[in-house]
Amino acid sequence: MLRIGVLVSGGGTNLQAIIDAISNGKITNAEIVTVVGSRPGIYALERAKLNNIPSIVISRKAFNSLQEHDTAICEHMKYCDVDLIVMAGYLSIVGDKLINEFNNKIINIHPSLIPSFCGPGFYGLKVHEAALERGVKITGATVHIVNEVCDGGPILLQKAVEVKPGDTPEVLQKRVMEEAEWEILPKAIDLIANGKI
What is the pTM of this model? Predict the structure, then answer.
């Protein structure tokens, strides 16, 4: 069984997509063993609780440096014997220690077709605002391996989503989640869990 640790910062819709995919058999040979929230009070932690998944908050504000925060996450993941870390809407930057200790074992879902609208400053609604400002007709989501370059690791899966006339950033964000993110993130996990990636 692939032991998954999920990093979350908000509502946890991608976490829910993973939980649902495990329960309905779309992800096999994997289990979520820990959920780590970037701050208290986020709904993702409630989703973990409702599904009897152990969770913890490791807040950047509780540490004097990014390195100390990174070390705390790394030690927690090792303590939980995690095989794969999934960044599911995680808005904090992970540091060198975690990336090196879990080399090629951290994946992220990004709400665009990398290399478009990615890198420092492109997260959440900002990605969709930029896509609409640029006037693209197709956007989507990307699952990639996390390395030392923000959104720069090898791409595992991508799925395109149509931009429609009258889209607002919020409407586009919802469509990208429903049509792409919630589909390709569980698919990537299943491929990894079954040795196909």
Answer: 0.95
